[in-house]
Fold Probable septum site-determining protein MinC.
Amino acid sequence: MEAAAKVQRQMVRLRGRSYVAFVFVPTVPIQDWLQEIDTTIARSPGFFAGRPVVIDLSSVDLSQAGIGHLLTSLQDRNIRVLGIEGVDEGRLTPSMPPLLSGGRSCVIEPTAPKKPEAKAESRPTSLLLESPVRSGQTVIFPEGDVTILGSVGSGAEVVAGGSIHIYGALRGRAMAGVNGHTSARIYCQKIEAELLAIDGFYQTADDIDSALRGKPAQAWLQGNTMRITALN
């Protein structure tokens, strides 16, 4: 009877979930750095809205008040900071985002080798989408290349660890090489992109040569500069 009367406790179910976060690395003077953020927002309104953002303060020496002012300035721009890196915990107040550690790029860690007799089970290194990516949709595949047989609508976003191949029009945002692959490229049959990025280097619609718009094009990195040329 006593055993039956005991209240059955239900275990708390925890689930892991990962997000691709932007890492901001402020530089001095902070006001000039904020103006660069304003320029990006002006070219692509709402680009940072609702997205996880981490601030890396390892390149600047800010006081507690300075950190607070920076966070407020970003919040005024509708940029919500998820966490802070690269600073002594003593400079943070309880009301500030937490101090994070162990952050790393979106690199898939290799698994332990299996026994020779066991059949290796490899993960896919490419993602094929046969349907268009419509406005407001986001596709994230940090493991490798993304190929889209249709178009990418305005306001849509494609994020890949490798290259991005679009066999239709690219009207939204495409970000390739997010896990540090500087050799990644972006290909599309009709470039009308809002933003292109490879390994963190980006160009917005205003930066793309107007002579290329509406035509097949490719983008790649040449050093620290993104090149966008016609795709012959």
Summary: The mean pLDDT is 83. The two ends are 80 Å apart (CA to CA). The chain is about 15% helix and 30% strand. Residues 149 and 167 are 5 Å apart (CA to CA).
